[in-house]
Specification:
Number of strands: 17
CATH class of the largest domain: Alpha Beta
Distance between the termini: 33 Å
Helix content: 40-55%
CATH superfamily of the largest domain: Type I PLP-dependent aspartate aminotransferase-like (Major domain)
Shape: globular
CATH topology of the largest domain: Aspartate Aminotransferase, domain 2
Bound molecules: pyridoxal-5'-phosphate
Structural class: alpha/beta
Strand order of the largest sheet: 4-12-11-10-9-5-6
Length: about 475
């Protein structure tokens, strides 16, 4: 589906329908909308362009009459010609026939819609898994960037495992978490997502089975399915992933790997207990089941620090540990790390070199300076303070407006509240209604395909007043849908 981030100007002297035909013609003649590209359904298109259906119909009819668009009931409207193809003696390339041929499956439709809606003005983002722009540490970042020129000798390609100075800083940081490792076992990646992508494309055979919590962040990605891998979901209780099904699944499904988010799990915010961590490591050692520990939310504790990482509980290289600055500092830096046995890290580094020749060296120097200056720890304290206030505000609004329609646990850290609705609802319908009201939500079905009674709320992004207003309006929509 085409992205349309434009709308006609209602104050312009040119009629609205004419502005629309000019816009579409321009897109087609520039080749940005190739032949066979499908336009959004008319009702949606009218909504995006902020015009009424009849204005849109006049514009589309004109383009159909010119032969640029075609339409058929039930199949929608698509680009039929461009001015070049009308004149050319040979047919033009059909790019659309390539779109589903590559390795990657498209994102879930609802994820594509979220990715687009996030940048619409005045949208209240009630599910976004990111720190609010209000948290941006402008002064600290300025001082770090001012100091960089003294450190940086060049911005050339870095070595395959990443900037040594950054890996040295991460080594010191990891030691404070109980992970004792050398710099040769640490590799820098462009965010935790790249770590997952590298693991998936470098270490796992095509038909692998991955055990993981259900629900999980991983269900929101198409990465593993694109490589023909299967997920086998394991329930969580209040101490984290349940152990009994793991051994069963390992034996019966011949699982290749376990993926877990033990700290402030996305989307439930559950923290795996100390005892569960020990038992999980013991079980995976027995079953010879390697573990990916995704620990990107660790630093966002609000009540007390979480137990030591799984990686700190074993010495035989069972766990590949992933960390990132995305949730605690800034996702735009695109800096994360993987820790694991040296041969594995070398393999991943070799594949990363084939992909991108390394993460941005400017970002790597910046990240290193955050650690070396001590400002990262100072920043974390401020983030925790601000998140505590938001968590309280969100829980207060929930208590006022959702007590009769949902249940939830107060999170002890991270960003999320996993809201369980008392009645199942059509998640797509709820999503659309909320979006029309300027509320962007993350339905639970993104993290568990079968869930029609959960929402992942986040208190990290929207401002305090937006949280209050947004949660109230969301409760009204849910109550209307329920009746
Ligand atoms: C559990 C988990 N892992 C990884 C990521 C991706 O992080 P990054 O921005 O570091 O790639 C996210 C982002 O939502 C996440 O929730």
């Amino acid at each position: 589906m085409l992205t349309i981030d434009w709308a006609p100007n209602h104050k312009d002297s040119m009629p609205l329908y004419r502005q629309i035909t000019e816009y579409i013609k321009n897109k087609i003649t520039l080749g940005e909308w190739p032949i066979h590209s499908k336009l959004p359904p008319q009702r949606r298109l009218a909504h995006i362009l902020q015009v009424n259906r009849s204005t849109l119909t006049i514009a589309l009819d004109e383009l159909i009459a010119d032969g640029l668009l075609e339409t058929r009931a039930g199949s929608g409207t698509w680009v039929a010609n461009n001015t070049w193809s009308v004149l050319a003696s040979t047919p033009t390339v059909n790019w659309n026939s390539y779109l589903d041929k590559g390795l990657y499956l498209p994102n879930l439709q609802i994820i594509q819609e979220i990715n687009q809606a996030e940048f619409k003005p005045n949208m209240i983002r009630l599910g976004t898994g990111e720190l609010s722009p209000e948290f941006f540490p402008r002064d600290m970042m300025s001082s770090i960037l001012r100091n960089l020129p003294e450190r940086i000798n060049s911005l050339g390609y870095e070595e395959p495992k990443g900037l040594l100075f950054l890996r040295q800083q991460i080594r010191i940081y990891l030691r404070s978490l109980g992970i004792d490792t050398s710099v040769s076992s640490i590799m820098i990646v462009s965010g935790a997502l790249q770590a997952l992508q590298l693991i998936c494309s470098s270490l796992l055979p095509k038909d692998s089975t991955i055990l993981l919590e259900k629900p999980s962040y991983l269900f929101s990605l198409k990465l593993f399915q694109s490589m023909n891998m299967q997920f086998s979901g394991i329930p969580l209780d209040k101490e984290g992933i349940e152990l009994t099904p793991i051994a069963f699944q390992k034996q019966h499904k011949n699982a290749n790997l376990l993926y877990t988010i033990p700290c402030f799990h996305n989307p439930t915010s559950i923290v795996m207990s100390k005892q569960r961590r020990r038992d999980l490591i013991h079980l995976c050692q027995q079953e010879q089941l390697p573990v990916i520990e995704d620990d990107v939310y660790r630093e966002l504790w609000l009540d007390s620090p979480p137990p030591m990482p799984l990686k700190a509980l074993e010495r035989e290289g069972l766990v590949l540990y992933i960390g990132s600055l995305s949730k605690s500092l800034s996702p735009g830096l695109r800096i994360g790390w993987i820790v694991g046995p040296e041969p594995v890290i070398e393999r991943l580094a070799d594949v990363k070199m084939q992909n991108d020749y390394g993460s941005s060296s400017l970002s790597q120097w910046t990240a290193a300076e955050w650690f070396a200056s001590g400002l990262y720890q100072q920043h974390l304290e401020e983030v925790r303070k601000a998140l505590r206030i938001r968590r309280e505000a969100a829980c207060k609004s929930l208590q006022t407006h959702f007590a009769d329609i949902a249940t939830w646990q107060v999170p002890t850290g991270g960003f999320y509240i996993w809201l369980s609705l008392t009645h199942p609802l059509s998640m797509q319908k709820l999503f659309n209604l909320a979006l029309n009201e300027g509320l962007l939500i993350h339905p639970g079905s993104i993290y568990d395909y079968l869930s029609n009674r959960h929402l992942r709320l986040s208190y990290s992004y929207a401002s305090l007043s937006e949280l209050k207003e947004g949660l109230y309006r969301l409760s009204v929509i849910i109550k209307t849908l329920k009746t």
